C-alpha cells in the first residue's frame, strides 16, 4: 500500500493592525529571507510596509494576508496581491514569504493557490503576475506549481531605485479553475 503524502493545511487571513503581523514582518526581515529582495529593511521601512499592507486591504486594491498553519494556528508567513500597472494595464502582482523553519513543506504553494482563488473571486483583473529573482529557485518553482506561464527574464525595480534580474510569470485568472 502506497504511503499518502502529508497534505499541508493552511488558511490565509487578511492582514490586520496587530502586533503579530508586525512581528511577522520582523521575522522575515533577515538576510536569509531578503537576499533576493535587496536585503533587510530598517524598522522605519517595516512600519511603512505594514501601513501599506493595511492600506491595500482597506482600499480594496488587493489583499495582503498572513499564512496560518492548521490546526496549530501558527502564523508562518505572508502572502498578498496588489494592483499595479504593467505594460499599460492594471493587473495584480503577487508576492509571498514563508519563515525558514516552514519552508520546503508546500506551504507557499498552498497559500499561493488560496490567494489566486481570492483574486479570481474578485473578478477585477484578468492577470496576476509574479516577479521572483532569477536566482530564487523556490519562488520560481511556486509559480510553476501554480500554473503561472513563464514569460521571460526582465529587469525589475525593487526596492525602489535598485534593479534586479527577475523571471516574469503570468497567470490568466479567466482560465484558472
UniProtKB/TrEMBL annotation:
SUPFAM superfamilies from the entry?
Acyl-CoA N-acyltransferases (Nat)
List the Gene3D superfamilies.
3.40.630.30
Its Enzyme Commission number?
Answer: 2.3.-.-
Q: Which InterPro entries match?
A: Acyl_CoA_acyltransferase, GNAT_dom, N-acetyltransferase
Q: Name one GO molecular function term.
A: acyltransferase activity
Indicate what this protein is called per its UniProt record.
GNAT family N-acetyltransferase
Family, according to the entry, reads as follows: Belongs to the acetyltransferase family. RimJ subfamily.
Q: Where is the N-acetyltransferase domain?
A: 8-177
**Highest taxon of source:** Bacteria
Q: What class of enzyme is it?
A: transferase
Which keywords does this Swiss-Prot/TrEMBL entry list? Acyltransferase, Transferase
Amino acid at each position: 500500500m502506497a504511503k499518502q503524502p502529508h497534505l499541508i493545511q493552511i488558511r490565509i487571513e487578511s492582514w490586520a493592525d496587530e502586533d503579530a503581523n508586525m512581528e511577522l514582518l520582523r521575522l522575515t526581515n533577515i538576510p536569509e529571507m531578503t537576499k533576493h529582495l535587496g536585503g533587510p529593511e530598517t524598522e522605519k521601512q517595516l512600519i511603512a510596509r505594514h501601513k501599506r499592507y493595511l492600506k491595500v486591504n482597506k482600499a480594496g486594491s488587493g489583499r495582503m494576508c498572513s499564512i496560518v498553519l492548521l490546526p496549530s494556528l501558527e502564523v508562518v508567513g505572508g502572502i498578498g496581491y496588489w494592483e499595479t500597472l504593467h505594460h499599460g494595464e492594471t493587473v495584480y502582482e503577487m508576492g509571498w514569504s514563508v519563515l525558514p523553519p516552514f519552508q520546503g513543506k508546500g506551504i507557499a504553494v498552498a497559500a499561493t493557490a488560496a490567494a489566486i482563488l481570492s483574486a479570481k473571486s474578485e473578478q477585477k483583473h484578468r492577470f496576476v503576475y509574479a516577479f521572483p529573482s532569477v536566482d530564487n529557485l523556490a519562488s520560481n518553482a511556486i509559480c510553476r506549481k501554480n500554473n503561472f506561464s513563464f514569460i521571460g527574464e526582465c529587469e525589475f525595480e525593487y526596492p525602489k531605485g535598485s534593479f534586479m534580474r527577475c523571471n516574469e510569470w503570468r497567470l490568466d485568472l479567466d482560465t484558472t479553475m
